[in-house]
Amino acid sequence: MGKFGTTIPDPAGGDYGSTEYCNQSVIMEIEVKTTKGKGEGTGVIAGKTTMQLNLIAETFCQPNKADNVTTLQVTQSKISDKEAGFEASDSEYKPKNEDMCDPFRNLATGGWFGPSAGMLNSDDFTDLGRDVINETNNLPGFKMADFMSEVCKTPGGGDGWYIITLFCGKNVGKCNTKSGSSVSQSFGVATRSAMECNKVIKITLDIPGPFNIPIENVTTPVANIDPCAMSALLDCWQKAPEASTGLGFNLATVGDLLSNDPLLQEHIDEAAKEVIDSFTSNCKIIIKRRKKY
Hints:
Helices cover 28% and strands 26% of the residues.
């Protein structure tokens, strides 16, 4: 996804081996897939729409120091298109929200071995999901709200997909590829060994209450969602992009559903419904307040 970093002279001057830069890469995807209902009579197969989150965070030893990079891309297959294929937005699109990568700021820099390393705040993370979706409103022809509206209005649903990819890159230090030491002798600057830098970052989602969910390089369960309910939420978010993503009293219900052992598809689907309903309710409150005042 574009150039990752620019060439910066090595301050060590090569005196103590090949010193490279430890750069962090985070890729978050929100993926929606929809299939059209098929068949007749008793053989009818209902159409369905699924949604899932994919997240991976890694650090690499690289020869160039990475700049702070935030890019967004959308790939989609419009369900109304009769011709096969898909289209993609500009992979170098820079979101208008310059703080979009902030929820990932402490993944590595919050202390490599400390308690804050790899921790995502749940409020920041859910706000990020809302902001990423709203950012697509600035991409004519690639708005998620338009895609979900199309699915909702198509009888029986439709076949297609919609994927938002957020890329966040930055430099988090140095790594010495020829030394097993984690401390550089040049200028007394602490560096990480290649072993310490080249890794998948263990991520934990910190949810208020007794929940502490690890999501290390893992795809979240696929949830079946009501495309019309999701469309209504996205339409509302276009009018009130600042609407709260807090779950309020729904938090306990969502937590209970996702704590079931075994975790069944019906639990995942119900939890997704609770989340969408809660977000929509929060958004409608904002709209109602505006009309009142």
